Structure formats: C-alpha cells, structure tokens
Amino acid sequence: MQKLLLIILIVLGLSITGKPQYITNVLEYNPAPGQLINEAPWGTPSAAQSIIGGIDGHLSLGAWGGYVVFEFASAVENNPDNPYGIDFTIFGNPMPDWSEPGIVWVMKDENNNGLPDDLWYQLAGSDYHFSNTIRNYEVTYTNPDQDSAVDVPWNDNLGNSGYILANSIHTQPYYPLADSFPNISTTSYQLNGTRIQPEVDSTSFMVKVLQRGFGYADNQLKRTEPWTTPDNPYTTEIENSGGDGFDISWAVDELGNSVVLDEIHFIKVQNGMLADGSWLGEISTEISGAVDVSPNTNISGVNQMVVIRDLPPIIREEYIELEAMAFENGLLLSSENIVWSTTSTGASIDEENVLHLTQSGTIEITATMESNPEISAMATATVELSNSINSFNLKDRLQLYPNPAKEYFIIEDNGLLEIRNQLGQIIIKEHTNKNDRINISHLTNGIYLVSLNGRTVKLIKQ
Predict the structure, then answer these.
(1) Where are the beta strands (DSSP E) in 374-414?
(2) How far is CA 118 from CA 113, 121, 188, in A?
(3) Which of 265, 313, 414, 457 suits 363 as a labelling partner, its CA being 20 to 30 A distant?
(4) Coil, helix or strand at residue 279
(5) Which of 218, 225, 226, 222 is nearest to 242 (CA)?
C-alpha cells in the first residue's frame, strides 16, 4: 500500500511539474498616467487579472514608472540547466522596430511571510550600464483634474518637467481615477526607479523604438509554443517561444553589485522609458503574461553579445560619442575591448570612441569584441550636416582650446560658465575671465556641452 501511494505521488508530481507555471496572483498594479489607463481592456484593475494563468492577457503600465507586481504558485529557481540560463519569460505586445521596454525587478521572500516586503533587485538588462541610464530616478505626476483627456504634467528629481500628452483617440482621463486606484493620491503621486533612454525615431510615419539587446519586457515578439522553451536572449533571432527571457543571475543591488539569488518569489515589471511616441502616444510597457522556464540541458547557443547605445536617427553634429558594451551570459565584460569600424564615406572613429563626420548621408558603424571577432553589432543613422559647416563663421561660435582636452581648456571670454553632461545636468558652474584655465581633469572621458554668454559648444574630454 505504501509503495502504491509512493508511485501515485510520483506520478502526480510529474504531472504537476510538467505543466507550465503561469502567473497565479497579481499583488499590486500601480500604473503611471497614460492613454490606456482608466479604460478597458488595458488599464483597469480587471486588466491586471487578465495576465493570470496564461500569456494572452492585456495590461498597460502607463508612462514611465508604472508597475505591476505578481507571483507564481511556486518559487522560480535560478537554474543553470535552463535553456540559455533563462529562468522565466515575460510576454508583451511589441512590434517589429517598436519596443516599449519594461525594467524587471525580482525579490526573494527572505522573511517567509508571503509578502513582497523584502529587497527588490533589478535584473540588469543591456542598457543598464550605458552612461545615459539614470538610476534613482523619480517622477511626480500631477492630476489635471479634468473629466476628459488632457495633458498630464510631470516633473522629475533632476529639475526637468513635461507632459504625458493626450490624444483624440483615447478621450478618458489619463491620470488614474480614485474609484479604480484608491491607493493613488487624487492630487499627485511619485514613482521611482531606473530610466533608460532609447532613441525614438519619429522621422517617418512608422515611429520606431528599436528592440533592446536583452533584459527588458515588451521588447521581443511572441512566436509559438511551447511557451516554456525560451529564446536565446543573446541573438536577434526569434527561434522558440519569443517574448523576453530573464536570468535571475542578472540581479544587481542598488549600487550595481551582482547579487546571488538561488530563487525568487516576486516579480515587478516597471516601464523604463519616459518618452512620447508621436501619434502612437506615450511609450507604455504592456504585458500579456509570464511563464516559468523548464530545465533542458539539450538547448544551448551563443552566450556573448555586443550592444551599441542608440545613435540619434538624424545626426546634425560633426562628432558624436559612441558607446558599446560586451556581455557574456548577460553579465558585463568590463575589461573587453570594443573595436569600432566604419566603411562610410566622410566618417571616422578615433581612439576615444568619438565618431567624426564631414559630410551628409547614411552611415553604418560596427562594434566588435576584440577577443571574439565573431560577436559584433551594427548601427545606422542619417547624417544631415549644415551646408555651411565648413565655412562656419567662427565669430558666431564659442571658442575654447584645446578641444579635445585632457586636463584643462582655455575660454575666450568673460562670464558665467556652465558645463553640462549628456543628461543635461550642470556639473560645473563658475564665473570665468578671458584666458582662464578651466580644470576638467576630474571629469570622466566623454562629450560635454560648454555654455557662456548664450553660446554653446561641444567639448570632448579625453
């Protein structure tokens, strides 16, 4: 009898574990304002329930910072025997050349109380290490308090402000309504997290936000069953289930240090972009479900990747700083040397990773791992330089030298000098006299904006 019972338990165990493990519970839905919020089927509490039990749901997180927290019936193991090391897959509704990337956070139930009240760890996707990514970012949304769609004001902790723009297609209020979201203040509320800054290409009718390398929800297209067999996140092909696979080993703490987690119990998906998509409305992460991945040591593939930070769709400057990262199993190879190249006429890349341009046209650049030349990435852009660029009147331009500079530069005039980084933050502000030496030895290498008396010029720090 005991032997028979053991056999029955084993069979039942196999049948239970053999079924896909989908989301079983949505613990919190806290959207940012957006065109789909307060409207079925994407932006209501019932929409949050639609992602339970499968991958055909429909949930919008609204603008930057909006998030959802969910769990599976059992903990998700960090299992190296999973295909490509992927532990779970999240599905959304992206399109070709249209990503609305959501940042994913995970939590282990350290205190075993069944509640998401321990530490959140971010899964560091491909954009996490770029210099224009903003961590500890905060945005406050203010309720315009109207009965129909109007622009929703926002301001951030860097001194910037703007609006989540209303459109004529979705006419309901975009700020979360109290009857559906009683935990959100009716006057204003603040969201915090990490902001990534992919380029939005609205130069043509088909607005584009290119797919991120890896590590973001609502990024890669859904393909086909079995949903428990993930795609290789380190290639651009969609070969298995599609969607976006995540490895718990990508977890980092608030300082960016790698964190070892054997399993996790809670997952948070949060919109990582604060941007407008023209006629498509604000960039708003949507998800349709998630699934735990099953172990399978027979599935493996490329585990290295190079990711280039987006180029502007149209480049109107003579030079632009390039940035690329190399990864292995989704972890940054900080010591890997990236080799840049271009065959485009009128384009060259110097040893400081600065792209120099002398004529208009289409350019193509390639970034390659020095240690493994088979791993590379390519990016393209349109260059539109002014016809007068070579005969520019120097009297109209702020003069400083040397440029590029290493330790200091000399300015040509008196006045209030401001130096901004690529995030627009003022990092140096001081009164200067003509021919003063401005110390920049403490700045990291890169491109900065130097302003004086209403004139601005780019400075290359080497």
Answers:
(1) 376-383, 400-401, 408-411
(2) 10, 10, 26
(3) 457
(4) helix
(5) 222
| Dihedral of alpha carbons 320, 326, 331, 335, sign | negative
Chain Cα centroid distance, residue 272: 5
Compute the distance between CA of residue 266 and CA of residue 206 in angstroms, rounded to an integer. Answer: 36
Residues listed for the chain: 462
153, 135, 137: which is closest to 145 by C-alpha? 153
314-315 vs 376-383, strand pairing mode: parallel
What pTM did the predictor assign?
0.84
Contact 293, 231 (CB under 8 A): no
- Are 96 and 64 contacting, i.e. CB atoms less than 8 angstroms apart? no
Q: How far apart are CA 11 and CA 21, in angstroms?
A: 18
Q: Are residues 45 and 60 in contact, defined by beta-carbon separation less than 8 angstroms?
A: no
Calculate the alpha carbon distances from 39 to 34, 42, 153, 282 in Å: 10, 6, 20, 15
Q: Which two tokens stand for residue 115?
A: 């509640």
Tens-place pLDDT, residues 163-179: 999 999 999 999 999 99
Q: How many other C-beta atoms are found inside a 10 Å radius of the C-beta of residue 196? A: 22
Return the H-helix or E-strand segment holding 415.
Answer: strand 415-420
Buried/exposed 97-130: b ≥16 CB within 10 Å, e otherwise = ebbbbbbbbbbbbeeeeeebeeebbbbbbbbbbb
Q: Are 141 and 161 in contact (CB under 8 A)?
A: no
The encoded tokens of residue 46 equal 């019932």
Residue 356 has which token pair? Answer: 């120099």
Say how many CA atoms lie within 13 Å of 119 toward its Cβ.
Answer: 10
In order, the DSSP letters of 15-27 are: HHHHS--BEEEEE
Extended strands (E) in 196-262: 244-246, 251-252
* CB neighbours of residue 187 within 10 Å: 9
> Residue 396, SS3?
helix
Write phi, then psi, for 308 (nearest 5 degrees): -100, 135
The 10s digit of each residue's pLDDT in 64-84 is 999 999 999 999 999 999 999
Q: What are phi and psi of 178, to 5 degrees?
A: -65, -35
Spatial strand order of the sheet with 437-439 comes to 400-401, 408-411, 437-439
Are residues 357 and 346 in contact, defined by beta-carbon separation less than 8 angstroms?
A: yes
Distance of CA 260 to the CA centre of its chain: 22
